[in-house]
Amino acid sequence: MLIEHDGKRPVIAESAYVAPTAVLCGDVTVGPDSRILFGAVLTAEGGSIETGERCIVMEHAVLRGRAGHPVRLGNHVLVGPHAHINGAVIEDDVFLATGVSIFPGANVGSGSEVRINAVVHVNTHVAKDTTVPIGWIAVGNPAQLFPPGHHDAIWPVQRAMDFPRTVFGIDRDELTMERLTELYAEHFGRHRTDRLLD
Questions:
Q1: Does pTM top 0.85 for this prediction?
Q2: DSSP 184
Q3: At residue 81, what are phi and psi to the nearest 5 degrees?
């Protein structure tokens, strides 16, 4: 399904394939020989999305471009099923396994692997040829790698990366669920004027 959002339409290379149940919304560019599989969602909401050559975005993955944080996939990137790439840059030859989460401002260096259910936090820079193990968390610039369950060690680094300002544009002390849902209701309300394309 192709959707015009904020006056911008998806652009798909002639040699690319987009499954009929995938959703491409707004300023999305799919590169040559790329494949966007069933149920994947690529939605440009204030920031563009661009895949390079021969990128594979598997079933039910979500790529979200946001203001100040476009999504860029280099060449030969595989995005596994149920992965979530939100406002991040993924360099060439990267493997993102099933269920990974990559947050705004992150950069995953070329030749890296982010394995099943691993997390790359906001503003984190993963060096080239790095492996983030299954379920681990990468946080910081440069990235430090932590096993799951080590919140006390992760939190000082994570706090400095400023998730609330990066993702929501507000200070941590202003972050309430009322404020968060107000911001998201306004932001996602812009979809009311979207137009389904043939």
A1: yes
A2: H
A3: -60, 140
